[in-house]
Amino acid sequence: MKRYGIGLAIATLLLGAGCVERRLKINTSPTAAQVILNDEQIGPSPVTVTFQWYGDYNVRISKEGCQTLVTHRALKAPWYDTFPFDFFAQVVWPGRIVDSYEWTFVLQARQPVDREDLIRKGQALQQQLDAEAAEL
What we know:
The protein has 136 residues and is of the alpha+beta class. 32% of the residues lie in helices and 37% in strands. A four-stranded antiparallel β-sheet has the order 3-2-5-6, with no helix packed on it. The chain has a three-stranded mixed β-sheet with strand order 4-1-7.
C-alpha cells in the first residue's frame, strides 16, 4: 500500500509539473486593424493570442481605408518543443516556459478606383467574350 501511495505521489508530481505557454502578438500599422488568423477573427490589433501548434498560419488583416493584406507566416518550433525534448519541457520540467512571438504588418493605403478605366476594361472583356462566342 505504501508503494502505491509513493507511486501515485510521483505520478501526480510529474503530471502537474511542466508547462509551455505559447503566445503570438500581432501588431499592425496603422493600429486597430481587424486580424483574422486561420479563418478565425481574433480581434483588433495589437492583439495577443495563445496557440497550440507550430506551422503555417494564414493571416488576413483589414482596416477601412487600407488595402486588405492576405498572407501567411510560419511559426517554427524551438528545439525544446521537438521530439524527444518536448516530453521533458511539457511534462517533467518543474517550471513554466513561455514561448513568445511577435509579428508586425504594415498596411498600405487603399488606392481609389478609376471608374472610367474600370468601365473600359469591362467593355474590352465583353468584346473578347463576344468574339470567342461568335467563333463557336
